[in-house]
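Raw record, unedited: SPOR domain-containing protein
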Amino acid sequence: MNTTAKYISELLYRYECVILPGFGAFLTRRQPATIQESTNSFYPPQKQISFNSQLKNNDGLLANYIASAENISYTDAVAKIQRYVLSLNEKMAQGKRIELDHIGAFFTSVENTLQFEPLQDVNYLTEAFGLSSFVSPVIKREVEIKREVYKEEIEAIEEVVPLTFTPEKRKERPYLQYAAAAAIVIGIGGFFGLKQISDNTISYNHQEWQQANQEIENKIQEATFEISNPLPAINLNLIKEEETTTDSSTEVETVSGKYHIVAGAFRIASNANKKVEQLKNQGFNARLIGVNKYGLHQVVYQSHTDRLEALKALRKIKKEQSSRAWLFVEEL
């Protein structure tokens, strides 16, 4: 039984693009939570799956995953994928509908084009784990009905008891005018006072923000990396010989490539050089690739020109050497 569809489903939880070599690519796109007003249904955020038949080149993701899961070689994994794709194409040529577990279905339309229908029951968004859709009961509001009832009652009362308005004679009170003017002046003064306080607060917050950023930048620049197993110091007595120096300089191998497997970054240059020598003793083509923006000397296990080779070497180094190794891509 070919379980390639199961492996594709597992990879869709972690990657946005999973290519089935020779057939097409499954793409995922994040979709926010939605509400369907016609049915009062609430749906959580999810990953929406689509299919692109133009992406058929093997990127090594699916084959490496199958080889690791079934403990087989990469070549056997590629052969297994090819057999699975061949069976899918044969079924499609016969006009059958293909069901891929937890992914969706493929079928041929009237225009003889490949159609994909994603499965809606599986949510590949790990952030929405445990969330399910639900239907809310209809909420009936009686506000408008009560307003109409009150309006009718008031109109009925006005018809029975007509309302009359009589003018009221009031004595002039000039001191109220002065009090109103004083209140206006106090209000204007208070407004400008509050505006001054607000401006001062904004300026103070901005200064504090700049100072905090500067302290964070200084902390980052002062960061150092501790070597858990430093190499012992060795004192060497060197004899200067021109021929030997000339021969050793010709043996240095130039390493090129923009895919670098990083072993660490060091504040002190001597520690970085020790790390390079340690990795070279272990058989790696280690070297320094320069200083980053924080003033740290970056050491790499090795560099590659091919992306797939770099990813394969990175997985091996993480498994056998250090899980903290990572891939840095830049033309040097």
